[in-house]
Write a structure and sequence with these properties.
single chain; 0% strand; globular; Acyl_transf_3_dom
């Protein structure tokens, strides 16, 4: 809704931080479970799985954009550059420092994720080598605090330049690291997670308040980089704690068939929606952008999922166990990530 420019959804751009926390939690849960079972991490397997999950659909989308963008936006003269920057997962720093890509602005968050995938597994192994397993959450939480301070530092040294802080991996890593810390507790200190889950009702009471606090921020508001992101990340933690045992009202709501299906389509919707919405919002009022843009994005996402994505997922999972790690539980709608 943020990309649609719908009224009262100015702060919806902070919703991506929910995903960052969830991503850090799921990826780290899988990595820690693998390390528990074998005493090591298979980097090649990890990066191959990530590549097959993300790259094929991305390359098809970028190819379609490269062919169609000159017809839709004939005034653009940097289409090739935008495609290359996006394909190399450099959109986060490209936008922050060079304003590229533009009509593929949404590629920044995928680039942030890719940088996380590159940096975190070897760093996790290093932390495990020098930290007792049950204390792993401590240095990870320290990293969360340090990265928050780093974001504040850049925000002030750059004269509160929103773009130069909002889009970069190094200034947006707090959410993913917070999810990593929660995963370390879930896997290595399950009794702690049980205690947190037992108190979930107190955490869930905060959820109705947080959206209103987040919505209060507008695009370009430096306060969103200080506290809006933090509120969104804490909301994500509360949701994960509430659903990790796959019981309770919130879990049942997130497991509704429509939401499960939407989760499967989410990557494709993410890829296709922004250029569609950007074109429509330049010519139509926001209700029409929603009514036309979102169904069209979902249709293209279905086409992507049932062709290239499902084929790539089959390659990814070929010959591998389909067993899910006991502590890497989450609603089914999230497991395709």
């Amino acid at each position: 809704m943020s990309h649609v420019h719908a009224p009262m959804f100015d702060g919806a751009f902070l919703g991506v931080d929910l995903f960052f926390v969830l991503s850090g939690f799921l990826i780290t849960s899988l990595l820690l479970k693998e390390h528990q079972q074998s005493g090591r991490l298979d980097y090649w397997r990890f990066y191959k799985r990530r590549f097959l999950r993300l790259a094929p659909a991305l390359l098809v989308f970028l190819a379609a954009y490269w062919l169609l963008a000159p017809l839709v936006w004939p005034e653009l003269d940097d289409i090739n550059q935008d495609v290359v920057v996006s394909a190399l997962y450099l959109a986060d720093y490209g936008i922050a420092f060079f304003d590229s890509p533009d009509t593929l602005l949404h590629m920044w968050s995928l680039s942030v994720e890719e940088h996380f995938y590159l940096v975190w597994p070897p760093l996790l192994v290093l932390l495990l080598a020098y930290t007792a397993r049950k204390q792993l959450w401590r240095p990870v939480l320290l990293l969360v605090a340090l990265m928050f301070v780093w974001r504040v530092y850049w925000l002030h040294t750059q004269g509160q330049q929103f773009y130069e802080v909002f889009f970069r991996f190094d200034t947006r890593a707090t959410g993913m690291l917070l999810g990593c810390a929660l995963a370390a507790i879930a896997v290595h200190r399950p009794e702690w997670m049980e205690a947190l889950h037992a108190r979930q009702k107190y955490l869930l009471w905060t959820l109705p308040i947080l959206p209103f606090a987040i919505i209060g921020y507008e695009w370009g508001d430096a306060g969103a980089l200080l506290w809006g992101i933090t509120l969104a990340e804490l909301a994500a933690v509360a949701i994960i704690v509430a659903v990790i045992k796959q019981t309770g009202l919130l879990f049942e709501m997130l497991s509704l068939p429509a939401l499960v299906w939407l989760g499967k389509m989410s990557y494709g919707i993410y890829l296709w929606h922004y250029p569609i919405v950007r074109y429509l919002r330049a010519n139509l009022e926001w209700p029409w952008v929603v009514a036309i843009g979102l169904p069209l994005s979902a249709l293209l996402a279905m086409l992507s999922f049932y062709t290239i994505e499902r084929w790539a997922l089959g390659l990814r999972d070929k010959g591998e166990s389909h067993a899910k790690p006991a502590h890497a539980t989450a609603p089914a709608k999230y497991t395709a990530a």
